[in-house]
Amino acid sequence: MSRMVNCVLLKKEAEGLDLPPYPGEMGQKIFDNVSKEAWQKWVGHQTMLINEYRLTPVDPKARKFLEEEMEKFLFGEGGSEIDNWSAPKA
What we know:
YggX-like, two-stranded antiparallel sheet
């Protein structure tokens, strides 16, 4: 049986992650409170941020920015919007 969490992003009980996806306290907080589905939403948003702002994830400034955005996206008021972006039509 899969591990269930009360997902802070989806606001419902959902399947939890198998392992902490990030090191340290933040990784444990995500593991305890974020579902697999919500984590995938973050990964997609992170990819858009990296592409739009042409970030290099190995750059310490870019990593700090992405970590701040991750915390806002998962636990705060939501991540930064990307100018002139809209979801593709299904």
